[in-house]
Amino acid sequence: MIHFVSKDHHIFKFSAKKDPALTLNPGKSVRLETMDCFSDQIQKPEDRLEEVDWDKINPATGPVYIAGSKKGDALKVTVEEIKINDQAVMLTGKDLGVLGHKLEGFHSKVLPIKGGKAVFDDKTAFAIDPMIGVIGVAPEDKEINCGTPDVHGGNMDTSLIRENAVVYLPVWVEGGLLAAGDLHAVMGDGEVCVSGAEVSGEIQLNVALVKELNLPTPLVENEQNLAVIYSHKSLDEAVTGAVEIMEELIKGKTGLSTAEIAMLLSAGGQVSISQVVDPLKTARCEIPKWILDNYGFSLY
Ligand code: CA
Ligand code: ZN
Question: How close is the Cα of 216 to the center of ligand 1, in Å?
Answer without folding.
Answer: 22
